[in-house]
């Protein structure tokens, strides 16, 4: 898991050598993702964000998401990291105004304040208005019922 060179303790010790204390945060000073300030480590033959890797190593489990309570992407301070879900992470981002326009809006285009989250077939988290989704499903079921009645009427 840590390669031929390192034990778990040595890997963690090596990790901390690539950090620096900045205020209350401990910021990753090693490699970073090209499109963000998130730190990146190479473990088990693949790259992983630094904050997620240290969270898993210190807590012994892998949550859906590792959130920063400090909202500082390069921070790897264990006291600032919380295991969470995609849904809670998106709600946290929306509360803090760090999401796209649809995520920040409290109402759907029809005026409902009834948002829900779901994972699509690709595993991506999406948001939809529950009231609008129920109405779409009701209309779909009605069309199917009418089509079935029409086909039964033709076969009689």
SSE layout and pairings?
Elements: H1 8-16, E1 19-22, E2 25-28, E3 40-43, E4 46-49, H2 50-59, E5 65-68, E6 81-84, H3 86-95, H4 101-104, E7 115-119, E8 125-129, H5 130-155
Antiparallel strand pairs: 1-2, 3-4, 5-6, 7-8
Question: Keywords for this structure?
Answer:
alpha+beta; 2 domains; two-stranded antiparallel sheet; 8 strands; 38% helix; elongated
Quick recap:
38% of the residues lie in helices and 22% in strands.
Your description of this structure?
The protein is α+β, with helices and mostly antiparallel strands and 156 residues long. It has two domains: 8-84, no CATH class; 105-156, no CATH class. Helix content is 38%, strand content 22%. It has five helices and eight strands. It has helices spanning 8-16, 50-59, 86-95, 101-104, 130-155, and strands at 19-22, 25-28, 40-43, 46-49, 65-68, 81-84, 115-119, 125-129. A two-stranded antiparallel sheet has the order 1-2. Strand 1 and strand 2 (25-28) form a beta hairpin. The longest helix is centred in the C-terminal third of the chain and has 26 residues, at 130-155. The chain is elongated and about 75 Å long. The chain starts with 7 loop residues before the first helix and ends with a helix. The relative contact order is 0.09. The model has no long low-confidence stretch (mean pLDDT 83).
């Amino acid at each position: 898991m840590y390669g031929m060179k390192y034990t778990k303790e040595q890997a963690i010790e090596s990790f901390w050598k690539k950090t620096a204390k900045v205020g209350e945060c401990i910021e990753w000073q090693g490699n970073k993702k090209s499109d963000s300030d998130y730190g990146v480590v190479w473990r088990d033959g693949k790259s992983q964000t630094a904050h997620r890797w240290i969270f898993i190593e210190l807590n012994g489990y892998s949550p859906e998401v590792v959130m920063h309570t400090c909202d500082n992407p390069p921070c790897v301070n264990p006291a600032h990291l919380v295991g969470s879900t995609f849904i809670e992470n998106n709600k946290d981002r929306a509360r803090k105004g760090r999401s796209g326009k649809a995520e920040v809006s409290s109402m759907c285009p029809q005026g409902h304040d009834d948002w829900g989250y779901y994972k699509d077939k690709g595993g991506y988290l999406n948001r939809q208005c529950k009231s609008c989704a129920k109405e779409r499903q009701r209309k779909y079921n009605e069309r199917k019922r009418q089509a079935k009645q029409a086909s039964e009427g033709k076969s009689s």
